[in-house]
Amino acid sequence: MDDRIIATVFYGVSLSVLLLTAAVVMGNVTGVPRSSIVIYWIIAIAYITSSRFIARGVLRSLEREQDRRQPVAIYGAGRSGLQTALALMSGPEFRPVAFFDDNRQLHGTSVAGIRVYSPDEALNIMGAEDCNQLLIAMPSASRSRRRGNNPALRKCRHSLENSSRHWRTRRWQGPYRRHPRGGR
């Protein structure tokens, strides 16, 4: 997301510099040094990029203050995790704050605007976000893995139970699919 903002600003400002340069050259305008066009390019990129990031930070902090939904973390940043996050984002009850995934290539990236972390960081991240629920979004994982036989999950579950916080696991099945055993 941040890379796209920077790339968009870079391309937009570069296009405006090219148009300005073309106007100066074609119009035979005298008294406009070439260095001023380079200085304009640098200042415009810095100003537009920084103002976008500052405005986004302010708007997000105001959004967080007004958001009364309960923070949740999602274990599994794949397709099922993305579907779970999008469903939770559109609902009034929960707000996804972090993804945890075993895939090291996903660590440090963002999925649907939510950062992906290593499962080893689960306790620290969930504590920092005041999050006390971890939703499991790994339909292809074995039952023992979903129940907490994964060392990172077991450590997180044990800590949450000891701190008398609520522990929940869910598997996303879509809004209209029924559970094979008759439940939802």
What does this structure look like?
There is one protein chain. The longest helix is centred in the first third of the chain and has 33 residues, at 34-66. The chain has helices at 2-26, 34-66, 79-90, 122-128, 143-149, 151-162, and strands at 70-75, 94-100, 110-111, 114-117, 134-136. It has two domains: 2-65; 69-162, NAD(P)-binding Rossmann-like Domain (Rossmann fold), CATH 3.40.50. The protein is built from six helices and five strands. The two termini are 35 Å apart. A five-stranded mixed sheet has the order 3-4-2-1-5, with helices on both faces. The protein is of the alpha/beta class.
Please tag this protein with its features.
184 residues, alpha/beta, Rossmann fold, five-stranded mixed beta sheet, 6 helices, 5 strands
CATH architecture of the largest domain: 3-Layer(aba) Sandwich
Number of β-strand runs: 5
Structural classification: alpha/beta
Please state the overall shape, judged from the principal axes of the Cα atoms: elongated
Q: Brief overview, please?
A:
The chain has 184 residues and is an alpha/beta fold. It has helices at residues 2-26, 34-66, 79-90, 122-128, 143-149, 151-162; strands spanning 70-75, 94-100, 110-111, 114-117, 134-136. The radius of gyration is 24 Å and the shape is elongated.
